[in-house]
């Protein structure tokens, strides 16, 4: 078992701890990058939905919606 496999196994076993860490990072990012809370929330949710043990997105996760560029 390689190092990457071991890391995936540990992350898969401790999903709750990973989710807590993602939440903390999201809060710090919101403080640092005010005005981008919606984007930060999207990314943190994607991280929480990710299946770390298999390296694939979780089955129940919705694909990100396409964003339209602002009209000029």
What would a concise description of this structure say?
The protein is mainly α. It has helices at 3-13, 15-32, 37-49; strands at residues 50-51, 56-57.
What is the strand and helix layout of this fold?
Blueprint: H1 3-13, H2 15-32, H3 37-49, E1 50-51, E2 56-57
Antiparallel strand pairs: 1-2
Helix pairs in contact: 2-3
What is the end-to-end distance? 53 Å
Give me the Rg, rounded: 15 Å
Query: Order of strands across the widest beta sheet?
Result: 1-2
Strand content: 5-15%
- Give helix % range: 55-70%
Helices, by number, come to 3
Low-confidence runs of at least 5 consecutive residues:
none
* Extended strand count: 2
Average pLDDT score: 80
Number of domains: 1
- Note the run of SSEs as H and E: HHHEE
**SS-based class:** mainly alpha
| Apparent shape | elongated
Biggest β-sheet description: 2 strands, antiparallel
């Amino acid at each position: 078992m390689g190092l990457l496999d071991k890391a995936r196994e540990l992350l898969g076993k401790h999903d709750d701890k990973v989710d807590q860490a993602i939440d903390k990072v999201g809060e710090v990012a919101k403080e640092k990058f005010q005005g981008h809370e919606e984007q930060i929330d999207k990314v943190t949710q994607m991280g929480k939905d990710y299946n770390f043990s298999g390296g694939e997105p979780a089955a129940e996760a919705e694909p990100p919606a396409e964003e339209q560029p602002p009209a000029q």
